[in-house]
Design brief:
Pfam families: LRR_1 (PF00560), LRR_8 (PF13855), LRRNT_2 (PF08263), Pkinase (PF00069)
Strand content: 15-25%
Subcellular location: Cell membrane; Membrane
CATH architecture of the domain at 447-622: Alpha-Beta Horseshoe
Shape: globular
CATH topology of the domain at 447-622: Leucine-rich repeat, LRR (right-handed beta-alpha superhelix)
Helix content: 10-25%
InterPro entries: Kinase-like_dom_sf, Leu-rich_rpt, Leu-rich_rpt_typical-subtyp, LRR_dom_sf, LRR_N_plant-typ, Plant_RL_S/T_kinase, Prot_kinase_dom, Protein_kinase_ATP_BS
Membrane topology: Single-pass membrane protein
GO molecular function: ATP binding; protein kinase activity
């Protein structure tokens, strides 16, 4: 059989060429993927292999990595936000030829603006926010000409904003917030015709400037955020040209004048924030911006009435108009807004009755109308939506009974209606409301017995100055979280139940001005957290329990105007009391030696049986013998008269010598007029001090005197504070001065400068302290700190003792954050920075000083930060007293050593004090982001 000839198929040349052309793209893609993988792995190695991008490897495609965006198999985006990157941006990143998006926000990238990005010719999106960039934004940044999104916020860029930014014609979003720019707004920004979002907020170092009228040319602008940027002058009418505007935030500036009525005609506007300025005049009467969701124009100088047109805003959820001078009635139409959840109108001059439909058509969560002149009843339907958490209506003229419906409002956490004229009984269910933590109803006309059951979560119960009667129910001891119980000036009677000693967290107990009788509870020692105890003006009898002396945190004790008898327990002298009043009782015996100084001169009045070793307190002498009979006392009387006569003669002779000596030295040295009183052994005399009070030694000066550094023996030095007065000190002032000096002289504490002695004359006094070589608290806190951009203005308020509380709050912020209270520009302030950080929902831990922030300290540092918040509340009347501040600090301080070992810490539960809206609700609580539930957003 013959073989068939072998033949091979022939492919036409045209088909072969077509096949080759079809394969070329796949070959090209394969090469591009390998190149891009190599570039990205080099980038990972350049940044020292951050653990957050460990998935990057040579065996997988970059398009499968979660941080990489690809289109058609080519890398177009790098998304490395919050990946702990600490290195700079390398030049070869732009070897990714198709790169359009770079997000490196929330990292630790240092240095100046990365000019290497100029080579990324297709770059459209650049986010470098929240890093450590410094220096100016370069004048040629417009070389990244295709940018549509640029975010350089939360860095340390400085200098002027370059005018060339106005040349980025495609730019739609520009964020430059929270830097240290010290120039002004370039008007060239008005050239960005495609701009939709502009954020310049929190640049407190900007030069004071008006809002550029060129902003009115940004026709597509939807979001304008220029809070806390040193804006002055009036809001320009040109902003009404921004017809697409949805969000306008000009808060925390120094804007003045009237609010342009045209702003309320912007039909797309949903959020308007103008709080904390100096705006005046009345609110616009005509409103067409019917899409408004949030309005905050609080803390200005607005007058007039709330417009009736506000009732047309059926999308409104948050209405904040507090701390103005608004008057008139609240429009009834506001009660018909179905979406309204938060109403904050406190601290105005509003009058009349509240709209009775409030809460009927909407799910109110927070209702605050305190410090006005409102009258009538509270609306019945405030909690009709079942969401009401805060009812704050104190300091008004409300009357009648509290709405019965509040007794069924299980969502309530705080009720503050004190200082009104409410009467009748408190709704039964309110006492035991499921989530109630604060009930403050003092200074009203309520009348009833206390119920046997209170809310399990109740931490603050204030019912003083009412007409409550009957006995304190023993069941009150079941309120295990109760920290403050104030029931002063009521009609309570019976004994103080021993069950009250079972309150483990009680800090303040005020039962004064009632009709309690019987003995003090014997188990009072269990109040280990108690700082304030006032049982005065009752009918208590028996002895003072010695257990009071073992209450470690007690600083304020008042048992006056009772029928207490027996001796004062010496253990009480061991307490760190700042106030003590045992007057008007039947106490006998010697007072504890610790109280024998002028600081307690009114603590023991009207106790005829008390005596003291030191006669300084005007008490009887404990060493004088009582008279037994007239016969036995006669010889003593004769001897006393003889002795007195002898003393008088000696005194006369001595006086004559003194007069002669005075006349002889009348024109001598002034030192004879000075008297030295020492509190420890001294190696110098008044002569050494007086001779050194020269201008060369002066180191400080103030309104009451000057401070000198005086060198003494062996090169040591003392600090001398000279306090002068043009006339002789009044008796009361002299008495107070001596008492304070005596206390200071006996204090021995490592953190308190020792008072060594004082030297006095008729018109001047010298306080001599140890000289502290280690500078001031400010230098220790901030000597090595970098300069920070913070706002620096404070609240304008009436001067009273709460100014000191505010100042203490500033120090707490300095301690917790490591930041300075002031930094350059007079429009910057640490307080506002801290509040803003808190209001935006940021973690408190992020605000704490990085140098000392350790896991073991986080709880204590957070408490200090929160305490700074309540101490710097806008309204002085809503700040805590220093006594309450001390309660919190004592509660949270480390426990003492017991037998050489540290006692286990209890949970530091100060949340009820810190979260009380009595303190925090008075501050602006505007949220930067809309949430479905914006109520009580300031709670710590």
């Amino acid at each position: 059989m013959s073989k068939l000839p072998s033949t091979s198929p022939k492919i036409p040349p045209l088909s072969l060429l077509l096949l080759l052309l079809l394969c070329l793209p796949f070959l090209g893609n394969s090469q591009t993927e390998n190149e891009e993988r190599t570039i990205l792995l080099n980038l990972k190695q350049y940044w020292e292999n951050p653990p957050s991008i460990q998935l990057w490897n040579s065996s997988s495609s970059p398009c499968d990595w979660p941080e990489i965006l690809c289109i058609d198999g080519s890398v177009t985006g790098i998304l490395l936000s919050d990946k702990d990157i600490t290195g700079k941006i390398p030049p070869f990143i732009c070897d990714l030829k198709n790169l359009t998006k770079i997000d490196l926000s929330v990292n630790f990238i240092p240095g100046e603006f990365p000019a290497v990005l100029y080579n990324c010719s297709k770059l459209q999106f650049l986010d470098l926010s929240q890093n450590y960039f410094v220096g100016p934004i370069p004048d040629d940044i417009d070389r990244i000409s295709r940018l549509q999104y640029l975010n350089l916020g939360a860095n340390n860029f400085s200098g002027d904003i370059p005018v060339v930014i106005g040349r980025l014609a495609e730019l739609q979003t520009l964020y430059l917030y929270q830097n240290v720019f010290n120039g002004s707004f370039p008007p060239e920004i008005g050239n960005l015709s495609n701009l939709e979002v502009l954020g310049f907020a929190y640049n407190g170092r900007f030069k004071p400037a008006r809002i550029p009228s060129d902003f009115g040319r940004l026709k597509k602008l939807k979001y304008l955020w220029v809070a806390e940027s040193n804006l002055i002058g009036e809001i320009p009418e040109t902003l009404s040209n921004l017809t697409d505007l949805e969000w306008l935030d000009l808060s925390l500036n120094d804007l003045s004048g009237k609010i342009p009525g045209s702003l309320f005609l912007l039909k797309n506007l949903s959020d308007l924030y103008l709080h904390k300025n100096r705006l005046s005049g009345s609110l616009p009467g005509s409103i067409e911006a019917l899409n408004l969701i949030g309005i905050d124009i609080s803390m200005n100088n607005l007058t007039g009435q709330i417009p009736e047109d506000f009732g047309k805003l059926q999308s409104l959820t948050n209405l904040h108009l507090f701390s103005n001078r608004l008057s008139g009635e609240i429009p009834a139409s506001i009660g018909q807004i179905s979406s309204l959840t938060t109403i904050r109108l406190f601290n105005n001059s509003l009058t009349g009755d509240l709209p009775q439909e409030l809460g009927l058509h909407s799910k109110l969560t927070n209702f605050e109308v305190s410090v006005n002149r409102l009258t009538g009843n509270l609306p019945e339907n405030l909690c009709a939506g079942g969401k009401l958490r805060g009812l704050i209506a104190f300091s008004n003229n409300f009357s009648g009974e509290l709405p019965k419906t509040l007794g069924n409002c299980s969502s309530l956490t705080t009720v503050q209606v004190y200082e009104n004229r409410f009467s009748g009984e408190v709704p039964a269910g309110l006492w035991s409301s499921l989530n109630l933590s604060t009930l403050m109803i003092s200074d009203n006309l309520f009348s009833s017995k206390l119920p046997g059951k209170l809310a399990w979560n109740l931490s603050r119960l204030e019912i003083s100055n009412n007409k409550f009667y009957g006995e304190i129910p023993a069941e009150l001891s079941g309120s295990m979280n109760l920290m403050v119980f104030e029931a002063s000036n009521n009609l309570f009677s019976g004994t103080i139940p021993i069950e009250l000693t079972g309150l483990p967290r009680i800090l303040t107990l005020l039962l004064d001005g009632n009709q309690f009788s019987g003995h003090l509870p014997s188990m009072i020692i269990s109040w280990t957290s108690l700082t304030t105890l006032n049982l005065s003006r009752n009918q208590l009898s028996g002895e003072i329990p010695s257990a009071i002396g073992f209450l470690p945190d007690l600083i304020d004790l008042d048992l006056s105007e009772n029928q207490l008898s027996g001796q004062i327990p010496p253990e009480i002298g061991l307490l760190r009391l700042t106030y003590l009043n045992l007057s008007s009782n039947k106490l006998t015996g010697k007072i504890p030696v610790q109280f024998e100084n002028l600081a307690y001169d009114s603590s023991f009045l009207n106790n005829p049986g008390l005596c003291a070793v030191n006669p300084i307190l005007n008490l009887g002498d404990c060493y004088s013998e009582p008279q037994k009979s007239n016969k036995s006392s006669s010889p003593l009387l004769v001897m006393a008269l003889v002795l007195a006569t002898a003393v008088v003669l000696v005194a006369v002779v001595f006086a004559l010598f003194m007069i002669r000596d005075y006349r002889r030295r009348k024109h001598g040295r002034d030192i004879a007029n000075w008297k030295l009183t020492s509190f420890q052994r001294l190696d110098f005399t008044e002569s050494n001090i007086l001779s050194s009070l020269t201008e060369n030694n002066q180191i400080g000066s103030g309104g009451s005197g000057k401070v000198y550094r005086v060198a003494i023996n062996r090169g040591e030095a003392v600090a001398v504070k000279r306090i002068w007065n043009n006339r002789k000190l009044e008796h009361k002032l002299e008495k107070e001065f001596l008492a304070e000096v005596q206390i200071l002289g006996t204090i021995r504490h490592s953190n308190i400068v020792k008072l060594m002695c004082y030297i006095s004359s008729e018109n001047s006094k010298l306080l001599v302290y140890e000289y502290m070589e280690n500078h001031s608290l400010d230098q220790w806190l901030h000597a090595k700190k970098r300069s920070l951009s913070v706002s620096e203005y404070a609240f304008a308020t009436k001067v009273n003792e709460k100014i000191d509380v505010y100042s203490f709050g500033v120090v707490l912020f300095e301690l917790a954050t490591g930041r300075e209270a002031k930094d350059g520009d007079e429009q910057a302030c640490l307080v506002d920075w801290a509040w803003r950080h808190f209001q935006e929902g940021n973690s408190i831990e992020d605000a704490l000083d990085q140098e000392i922030k350790k896991p073991c300290y986080l709880n204590e540092m957070s408490v200090v930060f929160k305490l700074g918040l309540v101490c710097t509340s806008t309204l002085p009347s809503t700040r805590p007293s220093m006594k309450e501040v001390l309660q919190i600090l004592l509660r949270c301080s480390p426990p003492p050593l017991v037998n050489g070992e540290t006692k286990a810490l209890n949970e530091c539960d100060v949340a009820p004090l810190l979260s009380s809206t009595n303190y925090l609700s008075s501050y602006n609580c505007t949220q930067r982001k809309r949430t479905s539930d914006d109520s009580l957003s300031c709670n710590v």
